[in-house]
Amino acid sequence: xxxxxxxxxxxxxxxxxxxxxxxxxxxxxxxxxxxxxxxxxxxxxxxxxxxxxxxxxxxxxxxxxxxxxxxxxxxxxxxxxxxxxxxxxxxxxxxxxxxxxxxxxxxxxxxxxxxxxxxxxxxxxxxxxxxxxxxxxxxxxxxxxxxxxxxxxxxxxxxxxxxxxxxxxxxxxxxxxxxxxxxxxxxxxxxxxxxxxxxxxxxxxxxxxxxxxxxxxxxxxxxxxxxxxxxxxxxxxxxxxxxxxxxxxxxxxxxxxxxxxxxxxxxxxxxxxxxxxxxxxxxxxxxxxxxxxxxxxxxxxxxxxx
Length: 306
What we know:
Structural class: alpha+beta
Distance between the termini: 48 Å
Order of helices and strands: HHHHEEHHHHEEHHEEEE
Radius of gyration: 28 Å
Shape: elongated
Number of domains: 3
Mean pLDDT: 79
Strand content: 5-15%
Largest sheet: 4 strands, antiparallel
Number of helices: 10
Strand order of the largest sheet: 5-6-7-8
Number of strands: 8
């Protein structure tokens, strides 16, 4: 149910120099960044915009460029040589959209005026992508009452689409377990409100999913047809979303799958450190420029350790 993300944007955002050329000599950082040198350079430009005399114009022009070029950015080789342009992935789109959304209301209003034909940098809800979601549609109002033990359809989560991808796996398991034990009890208690007959002492319902298509009289039935409609029209709904939202549609379908409470076993934090030379003194620091140890080289020995 979750979508694996990467920690790379967090590392790329920690800019230590004003040029990608610095990173070509810091091989331990460059190896971790891998093919994301272009994204690193874009982050450097973003940091530069914060220290200009007109911050709003600088940040607005940056967002306008990303929006107008559909997140095409200049790419670089590991030695800092330009190699052309590249399309950033949805993870980095989300990275800069969150930067935009973190602006104050007043700043955002001014920045909006600088973004022509704004597609990406605006308020939106990822719930839009849940319109065609079939999993959350199957709940106690849709799952047939005659299907006491959910043998025809899958076990419902009984969670709305807007919540389904925002809870932890443990919370989802608890919800499904409650459904597993409580739904059969509910359906068995409502069994007398549906036509049935007994064969060899076994109660057999005389209703099915097609009963809802007819005048079902005193039979209490769920709206199982709703699930069938979503199943039939899912593709056309997605196509309509793409038509209405344009380039933003693929991003929304991506972002709706990200679960902020998910803990991927493969997601690991890495500690980077490198040597920074200041006025002839080599200083070992981490990505936050926290001093790790201090040393100065001579032809005979290492001086001033720690």
